[in-house]
Amino acid sequence: IFLEYFDGRISLIFPKLKCLTFLEVTTDVLLSFIDNLTNLKDLIQLNIYSLNRNNIDTDGIQILLNKIFSANNSRLNTICYDHQSIPLTVIDQNNHLLYSNIKKLEIFLEKLHDLHHLLTRLPQIEIFYVGLQYESLEFNHTKEYSSVESLIELNLISLGYSFYFNELSSILNRTKKIEKLSIKIDNTDDLHLISGNYFNSFLSSFHLKQFNYLIKYISNSSINQKEILSTWKQFSQQFDYLIDDDQNHIILYSIPIHFSHIGISTRFFTNISSINNHFHKIQSLRLYGVPHIISE
Asked: Which domain of life does the UniProt lineage start with (predicted)?
């Protein structure tokens, strides 16, 4: 309805618009609207929340992504695309489109290779928040990617699949200039990701001013939580953990927890009351699994 009245005249009706937010629209509506975002001289920020899919395939998703990043005659410098939206894909192309206008980006992508392809197109990115949805079984770990010299803050969240250290290192090896690093991994069975000694050795070539970490590790055998925690003593901040009664699931995290949105399985509930003042930054909490514990 909005486009029926304002088609082609948005810049005339809202000439001072600086920030535009789309909430719970479909992909077809967003595509139509973005085509009309032109010549808004002050519009530099675009927020897209809870985008729903409607009659769009992988190629269509790529077209949508290009339009989002190039909207308003490539005047945007800040884009927020949240994790409640459909995950985006980035098709590798020989002639890469560069989005040199983007300085700050929050985005939700399907796989690790989408992240690498997108980083190649962001030569001026400074602050990058990215969530990954699915495992990249076909990801080429031996491929070398260009470094991203402009990036100073990286926030990486892996959702719902087992993440591994070589996947993480493939990203960090491209971003050696970062000063702030935040990593949240929802699921892994890789011991390297809970070894502070291993992490400290890898990060020794970085010049980090801030490091935030939260990871859920799953083991087939009993976990020695005190031994794991002792490997993180060489970091400037403290670390702590939550462990379930079976001693084979552990959440390791830096104190205080930096992330505003976390999910916790109810298997950790019997031990969570022992933790004090670590969760004061949490704004959104998702509880899941093991319903019999709740009933007890």
From this structure: Eukaryota
